[in-house]
Amino acid sequence: MYKLWATILKDIRVLIRDKVGLILMFGMPIMLVLVVTAIQNSTFELVNKNKIPLLVCNRDTGKIGVDLIQAIDKIGMFKLEQVSSDQSEKFIIERMRTKYALLAIVIPVNFSSRITAKAKKVAGKALSTFGLEGDTGTTKTASVDPLTIYYHPILQESYRHSIQGALYSALQLVESKQVLRTLYFSILEKQLPDTLENEMLNNKFDINEITIAIDGTRSVPNASQHNVPAWTIFAMFFVVISLGGSIVREKLSGSFIRLKSLPTNYYVALLSKQITYLIVTLLQAALIFGIGVWLFPYVGLPPLYFPADISGLFFVSLICGLCAVSYAMCIGVFAQTQEQANGFGAVSIVILAAIGGLMVPSFAMPDSFKTAMKLSPLHWCLEAYYGLFLEGGKLKDVFINIIPIIIITVLLQVLTFLGLKMKKLI
Predict the structure, then answer these.
(1) How far apart are CA 204 and CA 408, in angstroms?
(2) How confident is the model at residue 75 (pLDDT cuts 50, 70, 90)?
(3) Dihedral, CA of residue 187, residue 188, residue 192 and residue 196, to nearest 10
(4) For the segment 94-103, what is each residue's pLDDT rounded down to a tens digit?
(5) Of 152, 170, 201, which closes a domain?
(6) Lowest mean pLDDT among 65-79, 131-145, 229-243, 380-394
(7) Residue where a domain stops, chosen among 171, 201, 231
């Protein structure tokens, strides 16, 4: 035990001297979790709270164009600004290039008349189906000129789909309203009352949204619940920079060979490194979780809420940390130089994080990546954390995700042992 304690103290001193490694293991993850959470939280607010600037050029001379603008405004997603109907396409594009608006819509000339003609045709067919006198559609109705939508290039495709869905809903409401007015007038030969029109068009069925959680809670997880566990795992595995480099230095300096001539065992040195860096990974988790709980509210970010099973959280962190340490040791044993250990270790962690679901949600992965995703230890670590933080589960609920982590850890330990044997270092 004394030999182990002395070796641990030696590894701690070596670790403290590695200033760059400490910055990478603690400073970089803190910056990542702050920046990424802030960006994702602002993205949520853009969709849910802030309004997208929208330029509207209404070249229509009728009332339906105005109805469409009012319908778009009622969506609550856009901040409307109308420009003169005689403004050219070049003027609109120039306004958007300055990022004054990210979106513009042009309502074509004669939009009202053509929507009215289309509504009469649809209403006539409906009346004929009911056995009433109506337009059977013998006259050809001119097609409605499409709305023109201009997007700023910074709007991603997901935003475009959301915007298109909102605009289609507004357009469908205007068309339905006109068809309803035409049907009412054709049957009763009088205008549809506004109260009846609002009652018929706004009679929406309520939707009760529930977030499914294992513990029965219904709260919606915030950006911190998603990001803090993910980047904690990323930080844990980045001990490969310090631990992998340390093992390479000891190989090149002959430390493993000298251990054979001393009254000690190489297992003590390996166990010491694992204990030392396992403590480092737990400190990383405690630090990042603490920042999420206490610092985030002071910088305008949603706070991190701990899961109910704190002992389960500690056990998952312990297993994830041990897997990260095993991976770092394996890289250090097989790397020939410190540059190889640092370069391959850093790049491989980024790749494993990408395919493991830390950067892109696993449900959004293409099918070709889903098999590779299950080979990434970071994926199983993330699933275990998410089971606790997002689903409100306990240790028994996430144990199915812990088993692959244990299997990968054992394989990495075996590879490390075989690598030391192959290189005749033990």
Answers:
(1) 52
(2) confident
(3) -90
(4) 887 776 777 8
(5) 201
(6) 131-145
(7) 201
Q: How many CA atoms lie within 13 A of 336 on its CB side?
A: 0
Residues 288 and 417 occupy one common structural domain: yes
Do 295 and 263 fall into the same domain?
yes
CB 243 within 8 A of CB 335: no
Per the structure, the complete domain to which residue 148 belongs is given by: 51-201
Q: What is the mean pLDDT of residues 414-423?
A: 85
- Asked if residue 212 is part of any domain, the answer here is no
3-state secondary structure the chain: CHHHHHHHHHHHHHHHHCHHHHHHHHHHHHHHHHHHHHHHHHHHHHHHCCCEEEEEEECCCCHHHHHHHHHHHHHCCEEEEEECCCCCHHHHHHHHHCCCCCEEEEECCCHHHHHHHHHHHHHHHHHHHCCCCCCCCCCCCCCCCCCEEEECCCCCHHHHHHHHHHHHHHHHHHHHHHHHHHHHHHHHCCCCCHHHHHHHHCCCCCCCCCCCCCCCCCCCCCHHHHHHHHHHHHHHHCCHHHHHHHHHHHHHHCHHHHHCCCCCCHHHHHHHHHHHHHHHHHHHHHHHHHHHHHHHHHHCCCCCCCCCCHHHHHHHHHHHHHHHHHHHHHHHHHCCCHHHHHHHHHHHHHHHHHHHCCCCCHHHCCHHHHHHHCCCHHHHHHHHHHHHHCCCCCHHHHHHHHHHHHHHHHHHHHHHHHHHHHCCCC
Give the Cα separation of 276 and 288 in Å (integer): 19
Per-residue CA distances from 14 to 40, 185, 394 (Å): 37, 87, 37
Query: Does a structural domain hold residue 372?
Result: yes
Q: Is residue 373 part of a domain?
A: yes
- The count of domains in the chain is 2
Cα distance between residue 293 and residue 299, in whole Å: 12
- Residue 208, domain member (yes or no): no
Above 60 in pLDDT, residue 320? yes
| 397 compared with 370, residue with greater pLDDT | 397
Contact 384, 400 (CB under 8 A): no
Calpha distance 418→410 (Å, rounded)? 12
User: For strand 103-107 and strand 148-151, is the pairing parallel, antiparallel, or unpaired?
Assistant: antiparallel
Which residues, listed in sequence order, are joined to residue 151 by a DSSP beta bridge? 103
